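Onboarding guide, step 5: your first structure request.
Type a short instruction followed by the sequence, for example:

Predict the 3D structure of this protein.
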Amino acid sequence: MSAASQIMQFDPRSEYNISQRENTLSLLRRQGFRYAPVEFNLCPSLRESFREETGGDFNQDAYPWPWSGAGGPTLPERKIDWLQYHPGGLKEGAVINETWGLANEPGSAAAKHMTHMRHPMEHFDSLEQIQAYPYPEFEQADWSEVEAVVKKLHGEGKAVIAQMACSVWEISWYLRGMEELMMDMAAGDEKAVWHLDRLTEIACIRAAGYARAGVDILHTGDDVGMQHTTLMSPEMYRDWIKPRFAKVIAAAKTIKPDLLVSYHSCGYVVPFIEDFIEVGVDVLNPVQPECMDFAQLHAEYGSRLSFWGTLGTQTTMPFGTPEEVRAVTIRNLEIAGAKGGLLCTPTHLLEPEVPWANIEAYVAATREFSRAGRCAY
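The system replies with structure tokens like these:
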């Protein structure tokens, strides 16, 4: 039996007689758990390897993952000539996001899953141009399908997550361009104020819609960290992003107070963690070990914050041995302990360099930890 096939021969839901939803939510609330869940995602070349190994397509039910997705609302149909917002033209093969008007041009042959983003507001030089831009009309969205999916998945005992990364900051610079937006912010320009306020309004509508639909976890996020420092100063973050992001979380938790909010940011974010907790973040993702030490973070924040990630996709997963992958997985789960508070996963997409033996070692380590009786529920 292939390595990929071997790691699929286990269903913890039946072995531990507990639903995926109960186990996941209890773990993230630091109230104990029966088994350590598994979650990872594969780049296109590894998905092809998976298909060759198993004869099937990779999906989140193969292991299974600790949550299922809610999907998104249906937006009113619009016919917009997005090319008018890309006056320099686009490369052959470029894909335009029909919701936002972003364009992604093909990456290099060596990194086919990487793309070059084109920003439709990059050339704007007036507030009027920004105000006239066709932002998506979430005010008119139909949430009935999301509500039906949540109801179905809850009936199957599954935890439901709403994907709402790129909540305020990231989508704002995706549209405007990072350099242009940061210059606007540094100058206190009204263009940045209006743009960020409009995107916050949209994010609040989305967050409230997911809360009304009954999702268990709202997965938000905006990358504000780099490899060794933050993307902006704490002062700039607190002036421009924090109060707007606080409104987004409040819009959801006012409707569903027990909603868990996870927040994703790659890179080094230690200076912002207290801010995240203050505005209502419950789970920090991905806790990149090349930038931050999980043991230190857990010692300082583990009573107030749960974590999701911690297995390095720049280091351990691609370049460690299976024994090292096992050791890091067990160590991190032991740091969190029997109460939980850690969804131990790779910190990002698994790239082509990751060997199947390391994926198998990660999955096996979570099962070893679970079967050793180290969890309590």
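Each response can be followed by summary notes, for example: Residues 1 and 53 are 9 Å apart (CA to CA).
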